[in-house]
Design a protein that fits this description.
Elements: E1 8-9, E2 25-30, H1 32-50, E3 55-61, H2 65-72, E4 80-89, E5 97-102, E6 112-120, H3 124-134, E7 140-148, E8 161-165, E9 171-172, E10 188-191, H4 194-197
Parallel strand pairs: 1-8, 3-4, 3-6, 6-7, 7-8
Antiparallel strand pairs: 2-10, 4-5, 9-10
The structure holds xanthosine-5'-monophosphate.
Amino acid sequence: MNSAASAVPVRLTDLPVPAPHAGDVDAVLIPAEQLQERITSLAAQISADYAGRDTVIVALLSGTVMFLADLLRRLEFPLRLDFMGVSSYGGGTESGQLVYTKELKLGIRGRHVLVVDDILDTGKTLRSVTAKLAELGPASLKTCVLLDKPERRTGRFDADYVGFRIPNLFVVGYGLDYDERYRNLPFVGVLKPHVYTEPA
Ligand code: XMP
């Protein structure tokens, strides 16, 4: 069974939202401990698959920040790390036009590339990024996401390694933002609709 097939399905919990965030966050979707447990098993699988390979991890800015830090320190093989910046213009909770804000620094020709992103939603970002990287001649090209929202997909795309399969809800925390806020929450939570329906 590949790792995407072993993605952990999650539903909203009734855990209390920590007081400082309770005004904006409706519910906890994935508590901090569950994130760590799943990332440990994902890292073990990636370590087994990539041992002995000349590997470049390509992390997408900025939502991967927490996931990447926790995943990386558990990867037990020598690797190189690079970042790509890709934003979808449009704002709000809907994705719009893709704009590259940072290009790769490392060469990837003949190397094994694993792209790490926070969430796979419509699939537009990872379809574009993988098409762009494939042109550079990597030995292999795979993708790893913490969260997968399959109900939102607009075309064919599956990630190779998936942490959790989540329902069609806009989520924040553990690196994920709304308007650059909430990235510091140690859990993944669901915003209260007033946050994105009322003017700031
Ligand atoms: P696509 O649609 O291209 O989306 O697969 C990938 C990017 O969209 C952002 N995104 C979200 N960000 N909560 C967020 O904070 C969400 O529920 C969400 N859904 C999509 C994210 O930047 C991701 O890389």
